[in-house]
Design brief:
The structure is a homodimer. By secondary structure, chain A is an alpha+beta fold. Helix content of chain A is 30%, strand content 23%. In chain A, the strands form 2 sheets. Chain A has a 7-stranded mixed beta sheet with strand order 7-9-6-10-8-11-12, sandwiched between helices. A 4-stranded mixed beta sheet of chain A has the order 2-5-3-4, covered by helices on one side. In chain A, a hairpin with a 2-residue loop joins β11 and β12. In chain A, α4 packs across α5. The longest helix of chain A is centred in the N-terminal third of the chain and has 18 residues. Chains A and B meet through α1, β1, β2, α2 and β3 of A and α1, β1, β2, α2 and β3 of B.
Chain lengths: 325, 325
């Protein structure tokens, strides 16, 4: 807004050279020529909305690659949409960047956005550009969804199965590497750093809409997010053997380089935890096969409050908290 | 998100003590218990979307009152909606605040949001809370609008009248006062500071939908925003006598304490500039009366490019720029 003068880069440059190509010439964006945008009414379709913001030195490191930052703002929002059973349609972007930001940064950042827009099929509606002393990026994502077909967080039942997509904890090991808190060989380093810097959302959500009434994405550690899913009213008894650690994470656990508890309590995996009636097991396994995705049944919902691993209560060692709010 | 620990204030405090009351218990917010929110489908209604972000030390001063900051994030978004002919329905809020932020600040900030939500009839869908070293607030606002009834920026015709709501330039004088760049008596100071710190949006937009096909809100100075409305293709010949300065601004102009040009080129007035066919003049004057709002006809659109005041071309002395982007 307003006093937007960049030493190296004008607001016009950012808009016309880099951002305009992201609107895919969709009518709804007014080609960025109006004070806002709009979403067309579609018969019997509600619109799901997410909002996530990432801030330099909090959600990413000061000199992280612009491509990694683009990946993160998209992934955290897509993952929220997916947890509601929704595919993305469009988004708004609020981009706050320091004066010194240059063409190379913006080009790399928007190239990655373009790549992800094509991969997941959504476009840019519009947004705002501001000057700030930290990089800070906020996005609202929108997706159409058949009336009342949103996966909510209210309806888990005792004995429902709890499933997790993908692997958990890899991103957290990448974070420890960035902080120089773990020492492992180069090949493993590359694997975990990639998982931390370029997390990918589990986009299976929209296919779960008939099987699951309760889901959450892992943006705050598996245990913490599972607690939110249980909503303080129910419990889960997990078999340790069924927790989906990656092959590489298992190597580190076996070498005692990292505790499994830390991996369960930390990290932005952007995988989904969801509950489903026992009768859907076969259908969910078929869905996993069809999508070539790992989906693991880790436990059932129990009446006793709390999360238990092989019968022993586990306390979350990561006190952070996140809702929408 | 994530590492959100406040010395004085937890994320839970912010959500449950201060923000939850802003969702008016509307279903669409899931009472902040899901990863996102949604907007119901309404028959034949599209959804207009705006996004504005305000940043400490850019859009407001470091120690400005929290009520003023709340007023600004609401006003700049409502004003954008109004310029498209849309009334607000709901919004998302991304709130980035420093560690030191305390209960008093959050209480005052959210009390003002609550007041404005009741005044203009909208509620909070959800959002995100982050830690940052500057206060930075981003909001997306949403409003329902009958299919294709959005006021756009494309359809002005030569000879259409150009109208402005309210007065222009008062907010800019308030800004000069904040910067100690103008010296005037206390009573006038209070008037202009109020206009700068607590700007109100002109919400007449939704009533203009049948009279105007092109409108913009003044968030970047009257001349600059009029230029955007003219889109580089058309011109306007303004009669100086018709420019709606407030009585107090006229006092300063007459005393040569400020130039009228500066008042025309600067300031976030959040009034609307709109164009309308000559035949609508009577109807627009009736609308102004009905709403007890000042609406002034300042000029007509001419073929010759540029903005002229009594025949003399005026150059914008404020080079800032703003679209959605």
């Amino acid at each position: 807004m307003r006093i937007n003068k960049y030493n190296h880069l004008s607001e016009q440059d950012i808009i016309y050279k880099y951002l305009q190509r992201l609107n895919f010439k969709k009518l709804e964006s007014f080609n960025f020529k109006n004070d806002g945008a709009f979403l067309f009414h579609k018969l019997n379709q509600d619109i799901a909305i997410t909002n996530d913001t990432i801030v330099e030195s909090i959600d990413f490191f000061k000199y992280d690659e612009p491509e990694s930052i683009a990946q993160k703002i998209v992934t955290c929002n897509l993952s929220d949409l997916s947890s509601m059973g929704v595919d993305p349609y469009a988004y708004t972007l609020s981009l706050s960047i320091p004066n010194k930001t240059n063409h190379v940064w913006i080009k790399k950042f928007t190239n990655k956005l373009l790549y992800l827009q094509k991969k997941y099929n959504f476009f840019l509606l519009g947004g705002d550009i501001c000057k700030s002393n930290q990089i800070q990026i906020s996005a609202n994502f929108f997706g159409y969804i058949k009336n009342k077909h949103i996966i909510t967080r209210e309806l888990s039942a005792i004995n429902d199965d709890i499933w997790v997509t993908g692997s958990i904890g890899d991103s957290f090991i990448g974070l420890l590497l960035k902080k120089n808190k773990i020492n492992i060989d180069k090949k493993l380093q590359d694997y975990f750093l990639q998982k931390y810097l370029y997390p990918t959302p589990s986009m299976i959500g929209s296919q779960l809409i008939n099987y699951s009434k309760s889901a959450i994405d892992i943006s705050d550690g598996f245990i913490g997010d599972l607690s939110k899913l249980l909503n303080g009213n129910l419990g889960a008894d997990i078999s340790y053997a069924k927790i989906p650690f990656s092959r590489n994470a298992s190597i580190l656990i076996n070498k005692k380089l990292i505790s499994s508890k830390k991996l369960m309590c930390g990290g932005d995996d952007y995988e989904l935890i969801f509950t489903s009636s026992v009768k859907n097991e076969f259908l969910i396994r078929a869905l996993a096969n069809k999508n070539k995705t790992k989906i693991s049944k880790v436990c059932r919902i129990i009446e006793k409050k709390g999360i238990f691993i092989d019968g022993k209560k586990i306390h979350n060692i990561n006190n952070s908290y996140q809702y929408f709010f």
